[in-house]
Amino acid sequence: MLMKLVFCSTAHLEKQDTFTLKDIASGGESYPWVYDTMYGYILDAGSMRHPLLKMKAAGLSRSMRKFVYHMQRKHNAKYIHFDCDASPVEGEETFDW
Known about the structure:
Helix content: 25-40%
Strand content: 15-25%
Shape: globular
Order of helices and strands: EHEEHHE
Distance between the termini: 37 Å
Number of helices: 3
Number of strands: 4
């Protein structure tokens, strides 16, 4: 089975999202859905039911949830890798922090 991964810039995250993702990644959930890569994060959106609702409940921003929704719909992404050295996805919102 192939799973699609989108590799994109951390510029798509609001600053507060980076703190929230770090908390989620180090939270010790029995089934982790965010992984810290030292240079960003990998979001496992394909393995959970209702990922946008789970992201909202975790405190992630509306702009991040919108980005994930677009990546799932446009690219059928199951994983989204936010990396500080990656390029932004054209046409998607970015933040300068």
